[in-house]
Specification:
With 193 residues, this protein is mainly beta. 7% of the residues lie in helices and 68% in strands.
């Protein structure tokens, strides 16, 4: 995990130099977990390296934290939290680099850390996992004089897990289409002066 963040940090720091191919960005998304239960704002910070007018490498960090604490009148309760940190590296293709509002799509790999704790009157769930997963970004970009604004969708996954109940000896398998899913925007600071 440390190596992934170190490499991403080096990539981000290179963008602060005077090189014209680097473009830093900040973003704000609304993110949710795979079940759609935890929901809230998630910042995004990263940099793009322009390989050509149409192609770019994009690296970012996208943390998300949400919690729930509910008491119901019938005595039922729910209490828990969900923490996710995504560090991704994408190859991104811009379908119309010379147009005013081009569409783009990016795919790559994401190192994802998830920690989740959940307790209710029926039981308890604890999740701790760190893994490499595929990731996807698609959206539309608008040029604002020198800088840009995007509206986009980000997804990390799929993820497959097999659980074995030690008491019943039952094996269950499930697939999460997207371990985290977000919709939001990015403001991109152009490296071209």
């Amino acid at each position: 995990m440390r190596i992934c963040f170190l490499l991403w940090g080096c990539f981000l720091c290179c963008g602060t130099s005077a090189q014209k191919r680097f473009e830093q960005f900040v973003g704000l998304h609304v993110m949710t977990d795979a079940q759609g239960y935890f929901f809230g704002p998630a910042p995004q910070l990263g940099t793009d390296y322009q390989l050509s007018d149409a192609w770019a490498l994009s690296a970012y960090v996208h943390p998300f934290y949400a919690r729930v604490d509910r008491q119901y009148t019938n005595g039922d309760f729910e209490k828990g939290y969900f923490l996710s940190v995504n560090a991704a590296l994408l190859g991104e293709y811009n379908f119309g680099p010379n147009k005013r509002a081009p569409f783009f799509i990016g795919a790559g790999i994401c190192y994802q850390f998830i920690e989740s704790r959940w307790v209710d009157n029926f039981g308890r769930i604890d999740i701790d996992r760190s893994m490499l997963l595929p990731c996807l970004r698609l959206g539309k970009q608008w040029k604002l004089s020198r800088n840009s604004l995007t509206a986009e969708i980000n997804a990390v996954g799929p993820y497959e897990e097999t659980d074995i109940d030690p008491v019943l000896g039952v094996t269950s398998r499930y697939i999460e289409f997207a371990t985290t899913f977000s919709i939001g925007c990015r403001y991109i600071f152009s490296g071209k002066r």
